[in-house]
Amino acid sequence: MATYLLLLIIAASAFSTLNADVSIDCGSSESYGDDYSIGWVGDDLYIQHGESVELQSSKPIYQPMATLRVFTDRKKNCYNIDSEKGSKVLVRAYFFYGNYDGKSSPPKFDLHFDGNHWITVETSADQLVSYEAIYVTKTDTISVCVAQTFPNMFPFISAIEVRDLDSKMYGYSDSNRALMLRRRVAYGTEVIVRSTDDFYDRIWVPAVKGDDFTVLTSDETFIEVSLDDSPPRALFQNAFATDNTSTSIQLGTNLPTTKVPVYMNMYYSEASVLDSTQKRSLQLLVDGKINSKPFIPVYGTAGEITLYNLTANSDTTFSLAASPDSTLPPLINALEVFTVSDELTDGTNSDDVEGLASLQDEFNVLKDWGGDPCLPSPYSWDWINCTSGSTPRVTALYLGSFGLSGFLPDFSSMTSLEIIDLHNNSLIGSIPEFLGTLPNLKQLNLAGNDLSGTIPSSISKNKKLKLTVSGKSCKTASVDTSGSGGSSSSGGRKKSKLPVILGTTIPIFVLVWVIGGVCAVLHHKRKSEAIAAGNVGQAGGANKPSGNPQAAQMQMAANNMAQNVVNDFIMNVHEQQSAPEPVYNDDQQNHLEEGN
Questions:
Q1: Is residue 281 within 8 Å of 323, Cβ to Cβ?
Q2: Strands (E) located in 313-425
């Protein structure tokens, strides 16, 4: 058994390198296989932020739900999963509170995917809560994020599953919108149907049988399934049927109270070979009105009817009824109900995403920030500012005291930047030329780093830019290249004329100059004192003038020279008053398709 599970996990890992299929046990560091032959992996490779928690319970817990990851800071926290741009995927997120914090207070928080708001998660004290979305990816990364929306309610997540779907599946849906699962049910089965029977690992839950239903079992052991939505054959082994032709099948939809666009799939197959006197013909009714042409289930073959371009809510009734000429009651094998999302975002401007990716590649401390940088608003990354709109731009980087270490990479594609604050880090190398070419940049703070060299002309000649620079060992110099005024505290010189010194050390020749001057002063002082003492001894009295006039003049000249050196040095280094604060259907007719 252990060998089997190991092979399963290896196979799952190899398969996941070819597509997006992955099952992530959040908060766990283990890899294992479960009872559904699904290979699970820990979340170590997907996120390093947050706290891993293992649930304590006297009751058995499905292993992927036995751990969770909770987040107590940041606006949002995200898992990034590699995918292929333009692929159709199914994404599921699970939340099992299990009173992990001992407060008996299940939290509420927001769930996002790929920069889109998904839903407000309402967790339960002892029930598993899950959500599923089907959509076409717009980038090569899938992101699943949780965001705190209420005080003292910390978001958490138990597990994430991603499955690649065939591009033909759910083909009547808009590729710019997502299908949000409300219900997926199998009629007549007694166990959950999923991975071992469904190649795409959709979860089909057994329907609860009412008194008016009869369970039909197919006489055919192999059902032909050639539908684009690829329902598993196991669904067509059993069905619900009413007891007579006058009773219809009421379809439970689990729709919200407000009207929303819906997408529904109904699956059916005749369970027995009918004789010439028998006929089973069905019609779909919406709010009691016929909404379809009659359709006839075929023995041994899967059929499907799809309903879309319709708005509905929890008060809307959907039912399958026998056609007037039908001699047999209606039946159904399975049902899927989705709501349709708003149009999906294209995300933050791709040039800004590229620039931020360069920063993340260079600085490890930034790599754990995932999801869309700006969306959904207001859940941008904590260290950036963004414009509003469907495709926002990044206007500010607030990375002061962020622990950045190394060279500044090229992020010149971020042309909407107005503020770059990188003070108090450990940046090295020269100041990149591209910083002065950013067309909208107004403030650049590089103070408190280990930068060296001279200021590029693209910056020093930029009349719109306020620059703040210094090394860690010398004092800060603020250079206003805008020509808007501001003078230094010494000699009445303009700040733009200051020879700004970068780096952690003062040039060696300056040090030698200052030290030499001081030594000269001390030497002449000691020599003068010795001569004066000799003269006093020779004169034999303290009332006569002491010292040598030439030595006194030399001492005064040396003192003046040293003072001038120090004054001249001080004039070139100016103390910054304060670091700048971060400025933080067609025509709405129902369309139905029958597949055979």
A1: yes
A2: 318-322, 331-332, 334-340, 384-386, 394-398, 405-407, 419-421
Tell which residue, 359, 383, 365, 364, has the closest CA to residue 373. 383
Amino acid at residue number 519: C
pLDDT in tens, 450-495: 999 999 999 999 999 999 997 664 344 445 555 444 333 333 333 3
Can you read off the two tokens belonging to residue 386? 């963004």
Cα separation of 164 and 294, whole Å?
34
Give the count of beta carbons closer than 10 Å to the beta carbon of residue 29.
12
Rg of the chain (C-alpha set): 37
Nearest to 465 by CA among 453, 452, 478, 474: 478
- CA–CA separation, 596 and 227 (whole Å): 7
Bridge-based pairing of strands 334-340 and 179-186 is antiparallel
Q: How far is CA 347 from CA 251, 357, 371, in A?
A: 37, 14, 10
Evaluated on CA atoms 567, 571, 573, 579, the torsion sign reads positive
128 within 8 A of 97, measured Cβ to Cβ: no
Contact call for residues 56 and 29 (beta carbons, < 8 A):
no
Contact between 478 and 558 under an 8 Å Cβ cutoff? The reply is no
Over residues 410-444, the pLDDT tens digits come to 999 999 999 999 999 999 999 999 999 999 999 99
Question: Cis peptide before 378, with omega less than 30 degrees from 0?
Answer: yes
Burial grade of 421 (CB within 10 A; 0-12, 13-18, 19 or more): buried
Of 132, 20, 143, the closest CA to residue 87 belongs to 20
Q: What is the pTM of this model?
A: 0.78
- What domains are there in the chain, each with its CATH number? 16-165 (2.60.120.430), 184-343 (2.60.120), 350-470 (3.80.10.10)
